[in-house]
Design goal:
The chain is mostly beta strands. The chain contains 3 helices and 17 strands.
Length: about 240
């Protein structure tokens, strides 16, 4: 199944360069642009959906405006837990310079509001033809709990856009509302979603439970990660002789 999507939306601007024709229908392409993502106080489940030329690391993705003490973590689907927290310091930057690339999600926690600009090129799941862009969502294989995003920046990305297949009985999605700081879980069964079909905005990620798992609370970041972050701050501000 191939779904056509317009790579456009609120706060997104793209410039399409056709760099030579490959055949009668498909062009080589280079779609570049940016999107503005509002980060609110509390937890935010974010996504980077553009390839930054300098690399998709926290240092490159967050250029300025990150509040002191903001934290970021990724999800380890194999261990079913968050990775150790990376803490932002205005002098030294991120304590762990995580990558955040196509299809991944991350949890960013901050005490104040700020806006981050993500910029770069659209990923490899997009091709262009005479009639517009063609989006090929990659298939997520295996069962488990995954923190995922759509690999290209489209508004209202659905289950198929993210996972690459139609939902099966027992699949569920946990979407975090950064405004209310609450979570909505919707489960698929009998051809219907019990709390509405999941839909992700540009720059948003969510937990996808695949393979008929029972929805369960997502654990907080590892105690070892929190302990490590505390040790780092103590070391930075230790008394000096």
């Amino acid at each position: 199944m191939i779904r056509r999507n317009l790579i456009a939306g609120l706060g997104i601007f793209f410039f399409l360069g056709l760099c030579g024709r490959v055949d009668a229908q498909v062009y080589s392409q280079n779609i570049v642009g940016y999107y503005n993502l509002l980060i609110r106080p509390g937890d935010n489940f974010i996504a980077n959906q553009l390839d930054n030329s300098g690399g998709n690391t926290l240092t490159n993705l967050f250029q300025s405006g990150v509040p002191q003490g903001a934290t970021f973590t990724k999800w380890d689907a194999n261990l079913v837990q968050f990775l150790p927290l990376s803490t932002y310091d205005s002098s030294s930057g991120w304590s762990i310079n995580y990558d955040l690339t196509f299809g991944e999600g991350g949890k960013l926690t901050t005490s104040t509001t700020f806006t981050n600009v993500f910029f770069g090129t659209v990923g490899p799941s997009l091709n262009t033809s005479d009639s517009g862009p063609l989006f090929f969502p990659p298939l997520i294989s295996g069962n488990g709990l995954f923190l995922l995003s759509c690999v290209v920046p489209i508004n209202s990305a659905g289950f198929f856009d993210v996972v690459g297949r139609n939902p099966e009985d027992g699949d569920y999605v946990k979407i975090w509302d950064s405004i209310s700081q609450t979570e909505n879980t919707t489960t698929f069964g009998g051809g219907l979603w019990d709390h509405g079909a999941p839909s992700l905005s540009v720059g948003q990620s969510a937990f996808f439970g695949l393979g008929g798992m029972s929805p369960s609370p997502v654990p907080e970041p590892s105690i070892y990660g929190l302990f490590g972050a505390g040790l780092l701050m103590l070391w930075k501000f230790r008394p000096r002789k």
